[in-house]
UniProtKB/TrEMBL annotation, chain A:
Protein name, per record: Transport permease protein
Pfam families: ABC2_membrane
Organism encoding this protein: Phytohabitans aurantiacus
Compartment list: Membrane
Domain ABC-2 type transporter transmembrane, residue spans: 11-198
Transmembrane parts of this sequence: 21-42, 62-82, 102-127, 139-161, 173-191, 232-253
Chief location: membrane
Record's keyword annotation contains Transmembrane helix: yes
Membrane topology listed for this record: Multi-pass membrane protein
Keywords carried by this UniProt record: Membrane, Transmembrane, Transmembrane helix
TrEMBL record, chain B:
Predominant place of localization: membrane
Keywords carried by this UniProt record: Antibiotic resistance, ATP-binding, Nucleotide-binding, Transport
A Pfam family annotated for this UniProt entry: ABC_tran
Protein name listed in UniProt: Multidrug ABC transporter ATP-binding protein
């Protein structure tokens, strides 16, 4: 087995041994969406959204919430603790390359995000009657690059923060921006237009996710239909953020 | 050829000079001790040897490699045990060993290490649940899991109870017997005296002395101390008249005589002539502790 595979497996086991991260990151989006769906007005078509339903509009934001926890709370926290406890210092005396440790964290985070995402999509479909993504490939692409970008930002913070306090501070700042742009705190249709447009281009790109998920005219009217080229620009921006942040994380990684 | 050669090493952090001028060579198969008080520059020296720090001046070769330029190769062949470095709290002993062995091209059999270090019963225990001694043994196992040619062990037994320390010392002797050259950083005199073939005594960033433990002790002076309880009252002059005796003191009902040469023989002869029996007689030789004080002019604590 390769070093990367083994490191990833060990880190995956360690992730599962931290019940808070697993529960908050993986299960909470589904639980919150179900809780909101239990309120009749939120799961019924509304005039306000041109006949679309709140749960349908908010489902991608539930994903942002969970993935934000994994990418921007869990990963920077874990690596900052490793740095403080000398785990990284110990590793730096071995032949292993730091990029493998970062990649392992990224892979574990991505796997947790995929599980969290699948849970939300399937639960929304089975319980709340939200249709499965209409454009599955576009949805997967938007999901991959969007959350890849958030994960890469989290890994970048983890790579450079000298202490868990700094890591926590930086991560919380980015977390707030991502949550806000992702419409977690304030549903996007209540936000000023300029902020919404900014949010379209801020990782993880909720608009792209939503328009790939739903064809409902009400949804499209509320979030704004996208032309194919806008969609491509958004995907390219997310991919760019993911690559730049990921490369910077690998380059700037500090053992101590 | 020396396995490790350090020449005129100099390293400063800001305005603090950590290592001023350190040179020494470590031969194949020996246990080489780096001894000195806290803050003397021991850790900086070994961090430079293992490539963790870039020296400001001086040259270092380890196994013919430059620790900065040949980092990758060096890491394959030098095992390091660092002070103040922990593992992931929830990783188990066997997970850690299997993981670390995957980093090396020619790893040792980690299951054998597990048995050899007495950790077989803890194989599924998480790191955070191990005792201090067990954590230390795991740390040593990780330093050896890559089958290194050289092992650098920093503050090996700090925080261990007396039994665990002795077990660790036995272990280090076994490792050396298997052909590994060992650099041992310590501030424990008894540890250095027991384990090391040669010692570099580092003080204020410089090598104050470099010798075998016995050689260092001899340098501290050949003075011995004999203490005993005389069977009948004793006139000091009887002893101070002897050439071998330098001083006579009394304390706790005992007579304490210091001197050089064949002190014990001279003493027992004169006591026998005067029909005095020496009860509870003890001889105290100079220790590495005394050598340390003599060579650095201060106590190491």
């Amino acid at each position: 087995m390769s070093t990367l595979m083994r490191t990833t497996l060990v880190e995956a086991r360690l992730f599962l041994r931290e019940p808070t991260a697993a529960i908050l990151g993986v299960l909470s989006p589904t639980l919150i969406l179900l809780a909101l769906g239990a309120i009749p007005t939120l799961r019924e078509p509304s005039e306000e959204y041109d006949g679309a339903r709140f749960v349908e509009l908010w489902a991608p934001s539930a994903l942002v919430l969970g993935i934000g926890v994994i990418a921007l709370q869990h990963i920077p926290g874990v690596l900052a603790t490793y740095r403080e406890h000398g785990v990284l210092r110990r590793l730096s005396t071995t032949p292993v390359h730091p990029v493998k440790l970062l990649l392992a964290q990224l892979l574990v985070g991505l796997a947790a995000c995929v599980v969290a995402g699948a849970l939300v999509v399937v639960t929304a479909w089975l319980v709340l009657d939200v249709p499965l993504p209409r454009h599955p490939w576009t949805f997967l692409a938007a999901f991959g690059v969007g959350f890849g970008a958030v994960l890469a930002l989290g890994t970048l913070i983890a790579a450079v923060a000298p202490s868990s306090r700094v890591a926590g501070g930086l991560a919380t700042l980015v977390y707030m921006v991502v949550m806000f742009a992702g419409g977690v705190f304030l549903p996007r249709f209540l936000m000023p237009d300029a902020l919404v447009r900014m949010g379209d281009y801020t990782p993880p790109g909720v608009q792209g996710l939503l328009t790939a998920w739903s064809d409902h005219p009400g949804v499209l009217a509320t979030v704004g239909a996208q032309s194919g080229s806008t969609r491509l620009v958004q995907l390219a921006i997310m991919a760019g953020v993911a690559i730049v942040a990921g490369a910077a994380a690998a380059k700037l990684f500090r053992w101590e | 050829m020396a396995i490790i050669a350090v020449e005129n090493l100099h390293k400063r952090y800001g305005r603090t000079v950590a290592v001023d001028d350190v040179s020494f060579a470590v031969e194949e198969g020996e246990i080489f001790g780096i001894l000195g008080p806290n803050g003397a520059g021991k850790t900086t020296t070994v961090e430079s040897i293992t490539g963790l720090r870039r020296p400001d001046r001086g040259s270092i070769t380890v196994l013919g490699l430059d620790p900065q330029r040949d980092r990758a190769e060096l890491r394959q062949r030098v095992g390091v045990q660092l002070q103040q470095s922990r593992l992931q709290e929830k990783i188990t002993v066997s997970e850690a060993l299997a993981l670390y062995s995957s980093y090396y091209q020619h790893p040792a059999d980690w299951r054998e290490l597990l048995d050899g270090l007495g950790l077989a019963d803890q194989r599924n225990t998480r790191y955070g649940k191990l005792s201090g001694g067990q954590q230390q043994r795991l740390s040593i196992a990780l330093a050896l899991v890559g089958s290194p040619t050289v092992a650098v062990l920093d503050e090996l037994t700090t925080g261990l109870d007396p039994q665990a320390r002795r077990d660790t010392w036995d272990l280090i002797e076994q490792v050396r017997a298997s052909g590994v050259t060992i650099v041992l950083v310590t501030h424990f005199m008894d540890e250095a005296e027991r384990l090391c073939d040669r010692l570099a005594l580092i003080d204020s960033g410089r090598v104050a002395a470099l010798d075998t433990p016995a050689g260092l002790i001899a340098r501290a002076g050949r003075e011995q101390r004999v203490r005993f309880t005389p069977s009948t009252p004793l006139d000091d002059a009887l002893l101070t008249d002897l050439d071998e005796v330098t001083s006579v003191r009394r304390g706790g009902g005992q007579v304490i005589v210091t001197g050089t040469g064949d002190l014990l023989h001279a003493l027992t002869s004169v006591l026998a002539r005067n029909r005095i029996v020496a009860h509870d007689l003890r001889i105290e030789h100079a220790s590495l502790d005394d050598a340390f004080v003599a060579l650095t002019g201060r106590s190491h604590h």
